[in-house]
Amino acid sequence: MTDIKSLTLPELQAEMERLGDKKFRAGQIYQWLHEKLADEFDEMSSLPKSLRERLKEEYELVRLETVQVQQSKQDGTCKFLFRLPDGHVIESVLMKYHHGNSVCISSQVGCRMGCRFCASTLGGLERGLRPSEMLDQIYQIQKWSGERVHNVVVMGTGEPLDNYDALLRFLRLLTGEGGLHISQRNVTVSTCGIVPRIRQLAEETLQITLALSLHASSQEKRKSLMPVANQYELAGVIDACRYYFEKTGRRITFEYSLVGGINDTDEDAAELIRLVKPLNCHINLIPVNPIKERDYVQTERRKVVDFKNKLEKSGINVSIRRELGRDIDGACGQLRRSYMDQER
User: What is the pTM of this model?
Assistant: First the structure.
């Protein structure tokens, strides 16, 4: 069956013509799917009953099942565990800021990138998510909260650029006319550094923010933390980021997880400054979220601030990411993994 929530409006119009129905019905259906956030065809009350019955026969309407919601007592962050139509589970996070609600979504079931400090990758990759499954994380969270989502971050489980075609379709549906119409400038896509895809994304004429998971300032140290560095040299990754800025005018964000005794020394800070100073960028320092399967520890708060000050004194724009949801399995992949452990 055709996944109707992953269709663009022109594709939906073509489907209505194929069914021998009026073209304007496509606009009504699209509104029900992406603006009114209908979970069932029977909710689409402006459509004739005969068309609703035909839609049930011909199309799949993806709806994620909410398995679990954890809400932080510390900061109100909510973590969602969703079940997909095939039984796999994924997680998403709702974060509330003064500038609006942000949702962090997953792009894959599991991940094959193997980053050493991330729980998402421990079970390997099952499959990429469909555009509808990425969208419905946002839709279900917006319906649950009763509040509009303003910002979307594709930074949950999975490597978004490893699911490139589905990601691109998702971005077009999310930011286009007729749906939630979230501004492209309010969307961030994270990558561990798949160079050809970064360059390809630069050609797509999008205005999204690209966030690169850097985590080390040298090739050797990056290889020890991130296996993807064995395929893509750090110099090539930085060149691709420079190209992305040249093509889009969008400042790059570098994500840098500080791991105690691994990448938080004075030498690391100096090396990082030399690496990124020529670029128009922002560095997001992240005190690493410890996971029980790894022995990495968080950098002391004093050293985090000292690291930040060194970067700022060199003229680099930098911030320390506010830690959210530490009391609710806050790090990527932890809730999904603990659920799967319980199921087993």
Answer: 0.92
